[in-house]
């Protein structure tokens, strides 16, 4: 098994501002207003799948459409604004439905932070957020809507939502730390194929499936190394793969 010393060195090497420019976290980093940051982070997390080069290109297009004003874009959203914008599974109607739900959320409440915080206090953060979006989805949404906002009841890793929480809750050279209702010690590792493979190679994960049970196992093992901030090792697992 890889040692804590080795992992800590990798965190030190990769958790730097230089990490931001090639990562989807670059989008919330464009802004200083917490509402702009959380909306930009949520939108970036929706599309952060497939080829990194491709989804960053698509996000650049989407933020151009939004005129780099996420809060204003959402509060005044109308479907014709995005035209035929799409990305892989996500068709224009899927994006429109998500943005219209967000519009209602931001015009009637304190937005995503309030929704996530309410879910956290119920001890059902993922279920609460997803159930909210599903309950308000239009009848004609497609596969892309449910791909961008996956159902935690299916037992999946919820990788992109775990990633969003890392961005919003942790504070560091990369993560923005604009939400304070959770502690970094309560976050879950964003688990994808890459992180799963590296974690098994290093002895940090024994389960073969990249599901939420593996997220819990890996997060618990990382807590043994750093109870107060286990998810900093997301940078180490990324760095281990790069160094290989």
Account of the 3D structure:
By secondary structure, the protein is mainly alpha-helical. Helices cover 55% and strands 0% of the residues. The chain has twelve helices and no strands. It has helices spanning 4-14, 34-47, 52-65, 70-75, 92-108, 112-121, 125-136, 143-148, 159-169, 193-201, 212-225, 233-243. Helix 2 runs antiparallel to helix 9 (159-169), helix 6 packs across helix 7 (125-136) and helix 10 packs across helix 12 (233-243). The longest helix has 17 residues, at 92-108. The radius of gyration is 18 Å and the shape is globular.
The span between the termini is 15 Å
Number of strands: 0
Tell me the quaternary state: single chain
Tell me the strand percentage band: under 5%
User: What best-fitting shape do the alpha-carbon axes yield?
Assistant: globular
Main beta sheet strand tally, sense and closure: none
The helix/strand series, from N terminus to C terminus, equals HHHHHHHHHHHH
Rg, Å, rounded = 18 Å
The overall pLDDT average reads: 96
Given the structure, what is the number of helices?
12
Residue stretches low in confidence (pLDDT < 50, at least 5 long) are none
Sheet/helix structural class: mainly alpha
Helix content: 55-70%
Summarize the entry for a quick read.
55% of the residues lie in helices and 0% in strands. It is mainly α and 244 residues long.
SSE arrangement:
Layout: H1 4-14, H2 34-47, H3 52-65, H4 70-75, H5 92-108, H6 112-121, H7 125-136, H8 143-148, H9 159-169, H10 193-201, H11 212-225, H12 233-243
């Amino acid at each position: 098994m890889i040692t804590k010393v080795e992992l800590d060195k990798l965190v030190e090497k990769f958790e730097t501002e230089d990490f931001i420019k090639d990562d989807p976290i670059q989008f919330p980093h464009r802004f200083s207003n917490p509402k702009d940051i959380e909306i930009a982070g949520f939108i970036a997390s929706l599309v952060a799948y497939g080829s990194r080069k491709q989804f960053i290109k698509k996000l650049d297009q989407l933020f151009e459409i939004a005129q780099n004003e996420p809060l204003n874009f959402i509060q005044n959203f109308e479907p014709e604004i995005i035209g035929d914008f799409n990305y892989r599974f996500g068709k224009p109607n899927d994006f429109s439905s998500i943005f219209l739900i967000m519009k209602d959320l931001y015009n009637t409440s304190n937005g995503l932070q309030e929704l996530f915080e309410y879910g956290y206090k119920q001890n059902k953060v993922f279920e609460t957020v997803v159930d909210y979006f599903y309950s308000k989805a239009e009848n004609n949404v497609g596969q892309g809507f449910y791909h961008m906002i996956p159902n935690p009841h299916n037992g999946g890793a919820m990788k992109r939502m775990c990633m969003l929480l890392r961005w919003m809750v942790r504070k560091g050279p990369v993560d923005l730390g604009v939400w304070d209702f959770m502690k970094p010690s309560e976050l879950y590792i964003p688990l994808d194929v890459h992180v799963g493979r590296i974690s098994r190679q290093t002895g940090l994960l024994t389960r073969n499936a990249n599901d939420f049970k593996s997220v819990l196992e890996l997060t618990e093992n990382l807590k043994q190394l750093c109870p107060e901030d286990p998810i900093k090792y997301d940078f180490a697992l990324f760095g281990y793969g790069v160094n290989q």
